[in-house]
Q: What sequence folds into this?
């Protein structure tokens, strides 16, 4: 053997399941997928486990030939997974199979990708990823804003509207001074939404204090023409 010949062998964790290694060419292609195509260690580990789980599922059902795997088999595997694990895990397994089969198809190991047409479960996140401030955090944020300048009073009024009225920032910065108005014994705020719609709601007493102090200090009471300059960022 030549001294400069280096033989690279896959790590034990990357040795493909027998289903995906019917030939040396297929086995090499699978190892290349998990090494050259996936850089993240956590993703690689998850995808290896997913493909091995599918291979074990096929073996239990007497499906030992890679070329014999059809969309109906992948769909049945996904269907069973839905009764065992959470939707995100099912989608991860399906993504692993789709990517591996596609890699094998483009490498001419198999003719088509049997997972391509299989649909995974729907998964809708009911909770947004953006964290929401609790009452104490909101209070701390508002208290931290310096109010010895007009800019500070304006910023506190802005953030106060978003905090106490749960308003979109786009709706807040488009407010006019007239959008803070008296309605009976209460003060209300009005937001202009998309499509010309308007949304009105009573102002929290803390929000009233913030807006009253800012409007009084800025001397803009009764101003019905200024759009975003006072409540929003100055032009």
A:
């Amino acid at each position: 053997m030549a001294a400069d010949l280096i033989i690279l062998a896959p790590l034990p964790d990357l040795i493909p399941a027998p289903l995906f290694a019917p030939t040396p060419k297929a086995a090499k292609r699978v190892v290349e997928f998990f090494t050259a195509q996936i850089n993240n260690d956590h993703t690689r580990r998850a995808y290896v486990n997913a493909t091995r789980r599918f291979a074990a599922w096929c073996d239990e059902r007497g499906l030992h030939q890679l070329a014999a795997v059809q969309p109906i088999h992948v769909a049945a595997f996904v269907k069973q997974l839905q009764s065992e694990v959470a939707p995100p895990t099912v989608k991860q397994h399906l993504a692993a199979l789709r990517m591996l089969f596609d890699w094998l198809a483009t490498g001419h190991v198999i003719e088509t990708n049997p997972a391509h047409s299989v649909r995974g479960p729907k998964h809708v996140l009911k909770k947004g990823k953006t964290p929401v401030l609790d009452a104490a955090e909101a209070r701390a944020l508002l208290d931290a804003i310096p109010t010895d300048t007009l800019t500070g009073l304006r910023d506190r009024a802005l953030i106060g509207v978003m905090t106490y009225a749960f308003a979109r920032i786009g709706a807040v910065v488009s407010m006019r001074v007239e959008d803070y108005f008296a309605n009976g014994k209460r003060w209300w705020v009005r937001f202009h939404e998309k499509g010309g719609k308007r949304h009105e709601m009573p102002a929290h007493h803390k929000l009233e204090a913030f807006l009253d102090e800012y409007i009084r200090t800025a001397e803009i009471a009764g101003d019905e023409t200024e759009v975003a300059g006072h409540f929003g960022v100055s032009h």
Observations:
- DSSP finds eight helices and three strands in the chain.
- Residues 1-9 have pLDDT under 50 and may be disordered.
- The chain has two domains: 12-106, 135-218.
- The longest strand covers residues 186-192.
